[in-house]
Design the sequence.
DNA sequence: AACCAGGCGCATA
DNA sequence: TATGCGCATGGT
């Protein structure tokens, strides 16, 4: 079976795969912290979602994290990477905790991991996220998949290919109810489909070039570009600044981002984002 | 029932 | 370089 570093232990069972000793991964914290918009919470507390054409159902249990309906091969080729299981989050959290604010944020939600999502999906998701609510972002992304994505036999939909979206007209995008973001999505689809914006290169391009490549798209500014690079290209040094992080910087880090976060700024950002957004009193109070 | 949301583009100085 | 405004839609 798969060799993983750190102490994560993988057990194979009938229903799928169990991750044991996975102390730095909380399913709800990771999937509900505003980085991915397509995971559905089921009645039993599990989450169902997909990346590419691979589906899984994931449940936190006392014995470990159960990935239902996942084969060895899918785990090795897809989910190990998607959940960033090769990265030592214990070491990152320890390093960040040198600063008291990070220490609090990490203690508040120690099970957050930064997912390695598909680049094109991350780009669209964060175009949609601008000046918007989490709840509504989820609805628009779901309709985007249902209207333009390929349906699977099990009722799931793939995230639409750029070509499929590029063929559509602005009028056809109206069903998404994405508002002024519809034309941004269309411009992204057309530039990606035509090769004018090379999403596959974003992971390896020098950071400045990668940003510039993304900002060729109307409706992609510095914040959406940083989100795409962080969540969709594995660029953990990227640091998206939205209204929440802006407030956090002003109040909690008036002297700038602490040095202990310099090589994993994006991961630090995710702990802080979730902390200030959902923990009462994290901002303003003290 | 206002107010505002994981921003951006454009106008103005 | 720095503000300020409108933008579509709908959640709180």
Sequence:
């Amino acid at each position: 079976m798969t060799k993983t570093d750190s102490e994560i232990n993988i057990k194979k069972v009938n229903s799928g795969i169990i991750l044991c000793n996975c102390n730095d991964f909380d399913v709800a914290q990771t999937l509900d912290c505003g980085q991915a918009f397509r995971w559905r919470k089921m009645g039993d507390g599990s989450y169902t979602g997909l990346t590419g054409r691979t589906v899984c159902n994931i449940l936190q249990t006392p014995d470990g994290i159960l990935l239902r309906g996942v084969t060895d091969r899918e785990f090795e080729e897809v989910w190990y990477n998607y959940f960033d299981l090769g990265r030592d989050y214990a070491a990152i959290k320890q390093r960040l905790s040198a600063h008291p604010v990070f220490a609090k944020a990490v203690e508040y939600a120690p099970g957050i991991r930064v997912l390695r999502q598909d680049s094109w999906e991350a780009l669209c998701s964060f175009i949609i996220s601008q000046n918007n609510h989490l709840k509504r972002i989820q609805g628009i992304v779901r309709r985007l998949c249902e209207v333009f994505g390929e349906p699977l036999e099990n009722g799931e939909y793939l995230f639409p290919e750029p070509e499929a979206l590029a063929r559509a007209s602005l009028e056809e995008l109206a069903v998404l109810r994405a508002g002024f973001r519809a034309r941004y999505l269309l411009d992204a689809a057309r530039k990606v489909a035509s090769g004018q914006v090379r999403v596959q290169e974003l992971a390896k391009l020098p950071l400045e070039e990668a940003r510039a490549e993304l900002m060729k798209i109307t409706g992609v500014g510095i914040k959406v570009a940083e989100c795409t690079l962080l969540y969709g290209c594995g660029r953990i040094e990227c640091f998206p600044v939205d209204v929440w992080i802006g407030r956090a910087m002003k109040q909690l880090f008036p002297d700038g981002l602490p040095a202990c976060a310099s090589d994993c700024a994006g991961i630090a950002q995710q702990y802080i984002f979730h902390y200030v957004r959902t923990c009462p009193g994290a901002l303003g109070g003290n």
In short: Residues 34-35, 126-127, 129-134, 136-137, 180-181, 184, 218-224, 227, 240-245, 273, 277 of chain A lie near DNA strand B (CB under 10 Å from a C1'). Chain A has a mean pLDDT of 96. The radius of gyration of chain A is 19 Å.
